[in-house]
């Protein structure tokens, strides 16, 4: 790859990563081309060298934002080697995740766009849901969670973060995270195991 091609690829990647961060933080309707290009250190006119349209960029950014979540969920589960499910719950329902939507799980911010039926978001969203369900179901080596239990866990995680970001009362926001985390941990496969 020539020098200018390498620079073009790096610029495209920079714009895409900035757009993915914005999509996680603001959803799919807000990021504007001019602001994205400016933040990437590029001119608005250079946009079409990288993407065919705003929709093309946002679609790719949404897919990237969703896919980046897999590695984060796997890292969260590894934080607690004895109880990976607990590690994932604690990380996902932590204040840091709630307060950092730009680096958080895209399932929370992209659900509405996917729910409206836009195929650009629906297919990558579904893929990520299926990936997370498989990850959650496989966390406990001794007793795999049922698919239904994994669905309940994922729904509670995403819903609790969404609501905790949406409410005005900081106390209620914290309570949502804390109480849902505790309830999920109590439901876990190991919670019902007899004490040794």
TrEMBL record:
Q: Which residues bind DNA?
A: 32-51
**Can you give the residue ranges of the HTH tetR-type domain?**
9-69
Cross-referenced Pfam families: TetR_N
Q: Where are the transmembrane segments?
A: none
Does this UniProt record's set of keywords contain ATP-binding?
no
UniProt keywords (A-Z) are: DNA-binding, Transcription, Transcription regulation
Q: What domain of life is recorded for the organism?
A: Bacteria
Please report the name of this protein according to its UniProt entry.
TetR/AcrR family transcriptional regulator
Taxonomic source organism = Streptomyces lannensis
Provide the taxonomic classification: Bacteria, Bacillati, Actinomycetota, Actinomycetes, Kitasatosporales
